[in-house]
């Protein structure tokens, strides 16, 4: 997929807000330009704990599909990390959060637990584990870090390292109400099936914006549609490419 970075000769206007901050912009209504039904899903046998451990212990040679978003704001780059927590249920799931609407960046969006690197963090795994504790109360003793995926640069200039980990299913969570509006889980096999990966594109202020989304409809009469898009979907798409390399 195109990385959506404008050509060097086309400067990004100062103060350009992210798409999520454009009045009346709703990513759910953005045009869908493709769905990758032609690509195979990651086999179930590759999604077991043992297979995931082996994959990260001996990673393949591969190329990520999405590495950088178009820059949305004039701010200094900052290192960050997120935890990609695979919950070890009978059907493994990925734990995700819905950010509160008052946050300054990516408010209201579906996200992995994570955030900006602190000076005392020893590395991306330390950042991801600390942030997961601060955001959702996930204790490090319940987490087995497997490895990392390539750095993903967001439109708000965060250089994010995704840290993939296995999480015990009985982990007690205590979401921070200031940062987290909701915590939920999505089946891993749903996220690793390209038939559920939608490609979106639109023009805004003379620039073409492209991104993935992975809408997930929860079961039950009160089930919500969890709209996973933007950076979170981009990192999951890279996870798919890593698993299929």
Structure description:
Its cofactor is Mg(2+); Mn(2+). InterPro entries: CoAse, NUDIX_hydrolase-like_dom_sf, NUDIX_hydrolase_dom. It holds the Pfam family NUDIX. With 245 residues, this protein is α+β, with helices and mostly antiparallel strands. The protein is 17% helix and 31% strand. It is built from four helices and twelve strands. The protein has helices at 49-57, 124-136, 188-191, 230-244, and strands at 32-35, 78-87, 93-99, 110-111, 114-116, 143-148, 152-153, 158-167, 180-187, 198-204, 207-217, 225-229. Strands 2, 3, 4, 5, 6, 7, 8 and 9 form an eight-stranded mixed sheet that branches. β7 (152-153) and β8 (158-167) form a beta hairpin. The longest helix has 15 residues, at 230-244. It is globular, with a radius of gyration of 17 Å. The chain starts with 31 loop residues before the first strand and ends with a helix.
Features:
245 residues, eight-stranded mixed beta sheet, globular
Number of helices: 4
Largest sheet: 8 strands, mixed
Helix content: 10-25%
Alpha-beta content class = alpha+beta
Rounded Rg: 17 Å
Write down the overall mean pLDDT: 86
Secondary-structure element string: EHEEEEHEEEEHEEEH
Strand tally, please?
12
Shape: globular
Distance between the termini: 16 Å
The proportion of strand residues reads 25-35%
Low-confidence stretches: 1-17, 102-107
Keywords: Hydrolase, Magnesium, Manganese, Metal-binding
Domain Nudix hydrolase: 77-207
Cofactor: Mg(2+); Mn(2+)
Protein name: 8-oxo-dGTP pyrophosphatase MutT (NUDIX family)
């Amino acid at each position: 997929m195109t990385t959506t970075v404008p050509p060097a000769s086309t400067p990004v206007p100062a103060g350009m807000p992210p798409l999520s901050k454009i009045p009346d912009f709703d990513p759910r209504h953005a045009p869908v330009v493709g769905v990758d039904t032609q690509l195979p899903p990651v086999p179930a046998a590759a999604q077991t704990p043992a297979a995931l451990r082996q994959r990260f212990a001996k990673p393949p040679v591969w190329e990520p599909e999405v590495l950088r978003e178009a820059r949305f704001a004039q701010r200094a780059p900052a290192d960050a990390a997120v935890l990609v927590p695979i919950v070890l249920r009978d059907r493994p799931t990925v734990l995700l959060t819905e950010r509160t609407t008052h946050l300054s960046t990516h408010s209201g969006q579906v996200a992995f637990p994570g955030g900006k690197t602190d000076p005392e963090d020893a590395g991306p795994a330390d950042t991801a584990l600390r942030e997961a504790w601060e955001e959702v109360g996930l204790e490090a003793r319940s987490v087995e870090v497997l490895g990392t995926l390539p750095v993903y640069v967001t439109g708000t200039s965060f250089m994010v390292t995704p840290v993939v980990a296995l999480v015990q299913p009985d982990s007690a969570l205590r979401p921070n109400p200031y940062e987290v509006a909701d915590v939920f889980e999505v089946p891993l096999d749903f996220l690793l099936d390209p038939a559920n990966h939608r490609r979106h594109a639109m023009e805004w202020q003379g620039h073409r914006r492209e991104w993935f989304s992975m809408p997930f409809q929860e079961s039950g009469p009160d089930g919500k549609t969890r709209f996973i898009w933007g950076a979170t979907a981009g990192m999951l798409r890279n996870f798919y490419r890593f698993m299929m390399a």
